[in-house]
């Protein structure tokens, strides 16, 4: 049985800890945030990820998973996983203070032959200089980097299926990391030549995703601008049927913006990394500029429709469905909904009611957002129904139900729920207006 300490109990850390416990590991999940740890211990499910609350409760009940603020518990582990945050600093460089703090906290407790594996997103060289060098002064530990690539809303499933990349400081570190993941999760493991190569893998993944979404957003804006009845989702589906080399074209879908903890910062990491080494990189700036502009673009589209109704925007009531940055997640960190709400206020809308069943009231309150707990109350008599995330509860809303609750002639704005062509026709038959991003 593997004994594991997971340092950092946010979305990534708590998910990995719970899944490893369910695979038979003995797991300590450790964090400095006493409020977060207390919430886990009470069973409050502070991380809103499908299946995670039940899984963590189950593993705590059977004794394989423990949450605490006690860093000395890493001494009992065979493997220490670092899953602390690396937020964006004011100068667009990564703030690695959490990693430094974590290393300072565990250094007095590490012992020979432990494997320390970094999963936080960091620029190349961080594992070597900030983790391996100081810890190896304390003990003969093995050190590797393994990028975290889980998507919120599907994290438990993806952790059990996606290939895992590892890059060790030396051959024994790589072998230990490979053996750990193969034995605990049974997934494919890709061993790269160094921790720097593995660190670059994560940055490459997120830059590709951000660029791909930016392409989808530009195509959507062009479909909106052209004087034809174009549906960008139809265009993308057709484009994706083309096979190039071993793979098909894979343009992602546009929406009301990009948010979350990774895509909003990692391209800037890449940009500043290039600048620090005398290389000007253009694509990270472009993708960030395009994607960061989508909330204001969508608010302008909604305002444009409203002005055509010859009514004062301040008198219109908007029902916003979604505060989280991602479908089937309760995470509101860097959500594009916040700048979109600001843009709607700037356009002149004054009455906006927000509903998101996945987001905890405490998190919304901390962000200064008041949530309405009732979907029906949110929709009732709304002049605009604004879908900004595609939770399952929202996808279950039929055109008939929307029409029965919203005001006659209301706009249904499709930021991310993605109505089918048949549903759009039904909405219009029921007397509602429809506008999507690029549709």
What labels describe this entry?
alpha/beta, globular, 14% strand, Rossmann fold, 439 residues
Q: How many individual β-strands?
A: 15
Mean pLDDT: 96
List segments where confidence is low: pLDDT < 50 over at least 5 consecutive residues.
Answer: none
- Our measurement of the CA-to-CA distance between the termini, rounded to an integer number of angstroms, reads 53 Å
Q: Provide the CATH top-level class of the largest domain.
A: Alpha Beta
Helix content: 40-55%
Put simply, the count of helices is 18
Structural class per helix/strand content? alpha/beta
- State Rg: 23 Å
CATH superfamily of the largest domain: NAD(P)-binding Rossmann-like Domain
**Which shape, going by the Cα principal axes?**
globular
Number of domains: 2
Describe the structure.
With 439 residues, the protein is an alpha/beta fold. It folds into two domains: 142 residues, 3-Layer(aba) Sandwich (Rossmann fold); 223 residues, 3-Layer(aba) Sandwich (Rossmann fold). The chain has 18 helices and 15 strands. The strands form three sheets. Strands 3-2-1-4-5-6-7-8 form an eight-stranded mixed sheet, with helices on both faces. It is globular. It starts with a strand and ends with a strand. The model has no long low-confidence stretch (mean pLDDT 96).
């Amino acid at each position: 049985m593997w004994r594991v300490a997971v340092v950092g109990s946010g979305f990534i850390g708590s998910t990995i800890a719970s899944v490893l416990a369910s695979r038979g590991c003995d797991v300590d999940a450790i964090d400095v945030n006493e409020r977060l740890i207390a919430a886990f211990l009470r069973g409050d499910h502070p991380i809103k990820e499908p299946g995670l609350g039940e899984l963590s409760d189950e593993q705590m009940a059977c004794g394989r998973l423990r949450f605490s603020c006690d860093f000395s518990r890493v001494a009992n582990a065979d493997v220490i996983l670092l899953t602390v945050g690396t937020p964006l600093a004011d100068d667009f460089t990564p703030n690695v203070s959490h990693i430094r703090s974590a290393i300072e906290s565990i250094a007095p407790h590490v012992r020979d032959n432990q494997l320390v594996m970094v999963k936080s997103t960091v620029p190349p060289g961080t594992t070597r200089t900030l983790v391996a060098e100081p810890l190896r002064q304390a003990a003969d530990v093995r050190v590797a980097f393994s990028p975290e690539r889980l998507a919120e809303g599907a994290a438990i499933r993806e952790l059990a299926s996606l290939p895992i990349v590892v890059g060790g400081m030396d051959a024994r570190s790589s072998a230990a990391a490979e053996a750990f993941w193969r034995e605990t999760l049974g997934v494919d493991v890709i061993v790269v030549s160094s921790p720097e190569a593995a660190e670059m893998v994560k940055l490459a993944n997120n830059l590709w995703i951000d660029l791909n979404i930016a392409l989808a957003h530009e195509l959507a804006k062009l479909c909106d601008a052209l004087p034809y009845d174009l549906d960008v989702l139809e265009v993308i589906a057709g484009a994706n049927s083309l096979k190039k080399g071993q793979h098909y074209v894979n343009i992602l879908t546009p929406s009301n913006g990009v948010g979350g903890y990774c895509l909003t910062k990692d391209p800037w990491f890449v940009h500043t990394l290039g600048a620090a080494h005398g290389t000007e990189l253009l694509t990270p700036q472009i993708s960030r500029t395009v994607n960061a502009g989508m909330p204001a673009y969508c608010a302008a589209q909604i305002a444009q429709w409203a002005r055509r109704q010859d009514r004062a925007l301040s008198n219109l009531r908007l029902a916003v469905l979604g505060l989280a940055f991602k479908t089937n997640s309760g995470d509101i960190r860097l959500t594009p909904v916040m700048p979109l709400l600001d843009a709607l206020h700037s356009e002149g809308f004054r009455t906006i009611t927000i509903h998101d069943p996945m987001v905890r009231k405490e998190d919304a309150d901390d962000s200064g957002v008041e949530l309405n707990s009732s979907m029906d109350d949110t929709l009732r008599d709304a002049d605009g129904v604004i879908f900004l995330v595609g939770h399952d509860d929202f996808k279950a809303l039929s055109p008939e139900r929307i029409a029965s609750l919203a005001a006659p002639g209301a706009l249904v704005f499709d930021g991310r729920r993605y109505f089918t062509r048949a549903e759009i026709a039904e909405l219009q038959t029921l007397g509602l207006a429809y506008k999507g991003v690029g549709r």
